[in-house]
Amino acid sequence: MGRKWNNIKEKKASKDANTSRVYSKFAIEIYVVAKQGGPDPEGNQALKFVLERAKTYNVPRNIIDRAIDKAKGSSDDNYAELRYEGFGPNGSMVIVDALTNNVNRTASEVRAAFGKNGGNMGVSGSVAYMFDSTAVIGMEGKSEEEVLEILMEADLDVRDIMEEDDSVILYAEPDQFHAVQEALRQAGIEEFTVAELTMLPQSEVKLDEEAQAQFEKMIDVIEDLEDVQRVYHNVDLGE
């Protein structure tokens, strides 16, 4: 799974390059999940997860608090959760998750982002079956053996665990996310390099130089859309 983790790191680094965009997207997501399930993360697992992920992106506390306070108030902003699926050059596959208060606008913008950059929108289910929903948790300061021992003591069996560079990366079932994090915290691990519920491709494709440049441009355009929260794909972007 090493290549998949590299792709996650590359995507995260790309998003970190534009912090104002990242913070804006998190503010909307936090507002939506707090509005839906309540402002207390202990009683709202979806909010708890988003806040954990926000920490790995260094989202300022004031942005988080403002979004939660807005959810507590009388705001009637309504957002729909949408998933689009599509194709890029040479059989590449893309999943786009969005939160929007204008479905028609978002659908039009995502369709245009695909179509103007060598891709095309697919129907629901045309791509998602080739991806697996996965919890990915990364940390530094522990070896693979030490992390395995922590998980064994907590009676947790994850999909995969590996060392890469100075990090240990865990791949687990989505419903194990909080249990795994809690076990690691109990063992003294407080900081995580990644804490994501993501969609990992079952296999990856490599593109030639021209197709990859076109694909990366398409992904950049999609990710820049105001309503798009996350983008997943099956392209091996290389080193």
Automatic annotation (TrEMBL):
InterPro entries: Integrase-like_N, TACO1_YebC-like_2nd/3rd_dom, TACO1_YebC_N, Transcrip_reg_TACO1-like, Transcrip_reg_TACO1-like_dom3, Transcrip_reg_TACO1_YeeN, YebC-like
TM helices/strands, residue ranges: none
UniProt xrefs under Pfam families: TACO1_YebC_N, Transcrip_reg
Gene Ontology cellular-component terms listed: cytosol
Subcellular location: Cytoplasm
Principal subcellular localization: cytoplasm
Top-rank lineage group of the source organism: Bacteria
UniProt GO molecular function: DNA binding
Keywords tagged on the record: Cytoplasm, DNA-binding, Transcription, Transcription regulation
Residues annotated as domain TACO1/YebC-like N-terminal: 3-73
BP GO annotations: regulation of DNA-templated transcription
Residue ranges of domain TACO1/YebC-like second and third in the record: 79-235
Family: Belongs to the TACO1 family. YeeN subfamily.
This protein's name: Probable transcriptional regulatory protein Q75_04315
Organism from which the protein derives: Bacillus coahuilensis p1.1.43
